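From the pipeline queue, job 12 of 40. The input is one protein chain; the requested action is below.

Action: predict structure.
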Amino acid sequence: MRIEKLIVTHNGALKTKYGSRFAAIRKALATLVAADRTRGLTTKLVSLDDAAALRRVRGVPVARPSNERQTKAAIDARLELWDDIHRRLPAGGA
């Protein structure tokens, strides 16, 4: 699966900012991902405070979204994994 669009967020920050409207935001993001799929785009939604997802790529969850070093390290961990996967795929996908 080649990721063509990456949406990066922080669920904790969204919950703090939007409160009860957080569920509607998540639903809108899921709708966007589904719409992209119908257009042939592979979109991945990544939450930088998702500890389980970041553990899988040897990353560290971002405790505070204002922490630029943690944010960069978490994004780099995800991109490094995807880049490694894409390098191993034969040309044309698979």
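Job complete. The radius of gyration is 15 Å.
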